[in-house]
Amino acid sequence: MLSLLNRYLRFFCLSWWPDYQGRIGGLSLQRLVVMALFWPLFVSVQAINALGLCVDHLLFPGFRRVPVREPLFVVGVPRSGTTFLHRLLALDERFTTTALWELLFAPSISQRYFWTGVAGLDSRLGRPLGRLLMWAERRLLGGLDGVHKTGLLDPEEDYLGLIPVWGCFLMVLVVPVPALWQLTYLDRDGSQADKQRLMTAYRRFVQRHLYFHGTDKVLLSKNPSFTPWMETLAQAFPDARFIGCVRNPSASVPSQINSILIGARLFDGRDTRDYWRQGFMDMLDYYYRHVLAALASLPEHRQALSVMETLATAPADTVLGFYRRFGWQVDQAYRARLAEQDRKAAGYRSGHHYSLDDLGVSAEALNDTFGWVYERFDFPRP
């Protein structure tokens, strides 16, 4: 507990004057304002969540005995169809997956019972709070639909559940420090103590989720940020299965860099493109290499590879192929849902637009860093 408090204090101090590896230093007015708003809200939410987690041990101590059986992890390169695949799989009722509201505002069992009780009461009153919440959600999150469409009730990446223990890489936007970048190389560079700390926290999070949603369910987790954790996860969950996702780097790399720059501009008004571009070029090269190596190290019945270009054109056939590989049965209801997604996929057009010139991502840089990916998958080069 003391080490966690020290981490909060250290990151609080570092967040005001980020160094960006010597490229940009000092304090910007925009960061000053954003941090002054962010930290009180962040600490308040984390304190409430921590209280809920403590209450769980008093009211629902049985969660600690919940087994986690054969979880399925959707990992891979960001912007390579992980969200699409996740939502296709989530249509199967055998799975349970985390919603955004649970991750941010109800990581504990006690909070989930409280908020579902409030929602039930609100429903009987005609949903005044529900309508207000949906309006606020669209105002706050609607602008991100072209990049990553999400809502409080939608399935979301459960690494957000590790925010309290600083195990969520997204927090690098708040505190761009090596300690958080190291999460993107955990299998290779992480200490045994850090790996054990994160896996213990994650297992407890999953046990709480299964306790609330049903111990007969199978956890479905989608986290590109878990790609560099695959070996650690496979050791912590020996019966886990993994689907790794890849895509032509010409599409995935600039798309991911543009996505992170949207967040970076929110936290710091200065031009930090060079910092994020170089960091993500190196990181994504490692992701491509590691997802393929980690999958190859697992038995065939525990791993599969998804190529976005195939998934996008034939989602139902692709998913059914994974089920055959894992030895899973498919009921008629799920087949029908997949068939409907096939029809929708035919008319899908991405709303995520960006300029390679603005990002500073050249064809030469993509070829130099990811040339081996183009060759291995016979992807068209930029």
From TrEMBL:
Alphabetized, the UniProt keywords read: Membrane, Transmembrane, Transmembrane helix
- Segments spanning the bilayer are 37-60, 159-181
Q: Does the keyword Transmembrane helix apply?
A: yes
Does the record carry Membrane as a key word? yes
Q: Name one Pfam family in it.
A: Sulfotransfer_3
Q: Which InterPro entries match?
A: P-loop_NTPase (IPR027417), Stf3_sulfotransferase (IPR052736)
Q: What is this protein called?
A: Sulfotransferase
